[in-house]
Structure formats: structure tokens, C-alpha cells
Amino acid sequence: MQKVSESLSINQHCFSPRLIAAPMAGYSNTATRLLYRQMGAGMCVTEMVSAKSLVMGSRETFERIKTASAEDSVSLQLFGGCPEEMGEAARIVSQESKVQCLDINMGCPVKKVAKNGYGSQLMADPSRVFSVVQSMVSRGGLPVTVKMRSGPDQDQINFLEVSLACQDAGAAAITLHPRNRHQKFSGTPAWEYIHKLKQILTIPVIGNGDVFCAQDALYMFEKTGCDAVMIGRGAIGNPWIFQQILEIERGQNPIKPDLADKVRMAVLHFDMELEYSKRPEKEYLRLRKSLPEYFRDTNFYEQEKQKIQTASDNQELRNLLLHSGSW
Ligand SMILES: Cc1cc2nc3c(=O)[nH]c(=O)nc-3n(C[C@H](O)[C@H](O)[C@H](O)COP(=O)(O)O)c2cc1C
């Protein structure tokens, strides 16, 4: 088995270690990506960006494809379903953004996205998938990866067929979150599907789903033979997870952040969010929901969450974070 600290090759790019921060709408912005990368992620995927909005010239969407100069291992995720539109969006990204890869969202289960045939619903039409990937590969010039579920429906578990279509069309890697669209986040992800996929594809396979601690990640590598592990919810409020995986692999005791570490990290995260925000004065509205997660496994979590969620400006939120657990 390859070591986690070795690199994952996606076409001409190498990403090391083989740990990827998942795309998460509302979370995976510049600040969070930079923090996760500093903490040991080998690559970070952006929140999903609408190909249609990009092609239509939306200024706001254009801002979202820009990365910070300090970022070096980013994959930009697009969602859509029209081959021409996705190809044109890929071309725009390759010209206007400094990202290393493009990713296609074939996993989003929400109705608003699926009703247009996008996200996980795109999997219902493998020939369209082929055209989308081919169009993005030929027009964008960047490596194109695909993130998918096990299928668009419980009666249509077609990840093997769809992955082969992606590979034939020139995709450079596949990420599999092995739940179907209707499961959303319920039940247990079928990691055996990741193992199956790894056996049939020649391009790298990235495993995803329910990696909540460092041991889970190592277990996923071992059970599935995947080329990299992608972590989503397990990194929210716990960016140490990337570091912990590498420490365990090296035979070291993984860091166990204490309250002071959690406070420092939450405040650092808050400061980075303001630094990279386009409208910093309003950031407290979003951050007061996510930053309490730093205290998720403490016995004052519920109490602290309630308090932090009432913060009425950035200064108050920062102060509450700074004094978490000490009131
Ligand atoms: C709040 C939230 C937002 C998400 N946004 C996206 C997204 O924009 N694109 C995507 O492909 N998946 C998205 N996902 C799915 C995750 O990338 C990931 O596949 C899923 O959470 C399973 O991995 P995990 O168990 O490590 O969290 C999102 C998940 C959550 C919880």
C-alpha cells in the first residue's frame, strides 16, 4: 500500500499528501482551504460553482473562481449538465483562474440542482456524462476529475458505468461518495464500492464518506485500496484531522488539541475568514453558525453554541470565541 504522505498524481500535477478537503458549500472558501492546506491537506476542492452563471458573465461567480496567491493545490468544482456550457465554463476557468484541476459535481442530491439534471441527477444519463467530460477536457486544458455518488437512485446504482464513461472521455480521477442520491447522508456509505471501482479503473480513485477521525481515513485506505481520501464534515471544527492521519502513519502519537488549542484555532480561522472576505462586516452572520464546531466535543458545546450564535457583530463573535469555555 502507498503511504499517505506520498503524492497523488493527477495528470501532470502531484498533490501531497493523499488527503483532500471536500467541496462543501458554505465552507470551502479561500480562508478554509488555506487553513486545511496548512494543517496537512494535499488538495482542497472549492464549493460548487454554477457553469451557467459563469458563462452568463455573473460578476459574483467570477469572483468565486479566483484563488488567493498563497494557494497552490486547488481544484475548482463546477456544476451543470450541458456539454457546451460546461466546456465553455472550463475554458473560462483555465484562462481566468489559477486552479490546478477542475472537478464536476455529480453528487449534489438537493432538488433545486437535481431538477435541472445537474449534480447526482446527471448520473442518470451516462452518455451525457461522457459528452460533458469530453467537452471540458478538450476546451479547458486542465485535468478534469468527477465527484459522484453510487447512483442517481436506489434502483440505479450505476457508478461503475458512469465512471468508465468518465474515464473514456478523458477524466483524470474519480471521487466516489458511495451513497445514492436518495440517501443524502443517511445510512452507511458502501465503501466496498470504492474498492470495486479501484479494481476496474486505471485512473486514480478517491474515497469519500464518513471519515470522521484519523483512524477512519487509514481504515478507508486499507479497506478500499483508494489512491486518496477526501474528508468533508470530519474537518469542520477539526482541521487537525489531516495532521493526525500523517502522525499516526509515522508512528507518532497524534496531536490531541486541548481547549487552548481549540480557542487559538477558532480565532485564527475567524481572522483568516475576515482577511479573505469580500464583505468582512457581514461575516459574523455565517461564522457564528460554523465556528462553534471547534468546541463540538467539549461538555460546554451546546451552551457555547447558543451564546456564539447570538453574536451581533464581528468583534463580539471574536471575543466570545476567545473566551470559550471560560465564562
Ligand atoms: C454542508 C455541506 C456542503 C456540501 N457541499 C458540496 C458541494 O458543494 N459539492 C460537492 O460535491 N459535495 C458537497 N458536499 C458533500 C461533501 O463534499 C461530501 O461528499 C460528503 O459530505 C461526504 O463526505 P464526509 O462524510 O467526509 O462529509 C457537501 C456536504 C456538506 C455537509
Features:
14 helices; alpha/beta; 327 residues; binds flavin mononucleotide; single chain; TIM Barrel; 11 strands; two-stranded antiparallel ribbon
Helix/strand layout:
Blueprint: E1 8-10, E2 13-15, E3 19-21, H1 30-38, E4 43-45, E5 49-50, H2 51-55, H3 59-64, E6 74-79, H4 83-96, E7 101-106, H5 111-114, H6 126-140, E8 144-151, H7 159-168, E9 173-180, H8 191-200, E10 205-208, H9 214-224, E11 228-231, H10 240-249, H11 259-276, H12 283-290, H13 301-308, H14 314-322
Parallel strand pairs: 3-4, 3-11, 4-6, 5-6, 6-7, 7-8, 8-9, 9-10, 10-11
Antiparallel strand pairs: 1-2
This protein binds flavin mononucleotide.
Describe the fold and architecture.
The chain has 327 residues and is of the alpha/beta class. The chain folds into 2 domains: 8-249, Alpha-Beta Barrel (TIM Barrel); 259-322. Helix content is 42%, strand content 15%. It is built from 14 helices and 11 strands. A hairpin with a 2-residue loop joins β1 (8-10) and β2. Flavin mononucleotide is lined by residues 22-26, 47-48, 77, 105, 107-108, 147, 177, 208-211, 231-234. Residues 22-26, 47-48, 77, 105, 107-108, 147, 177, 208-211, 231-234 line the site of flavin mononucleotide.
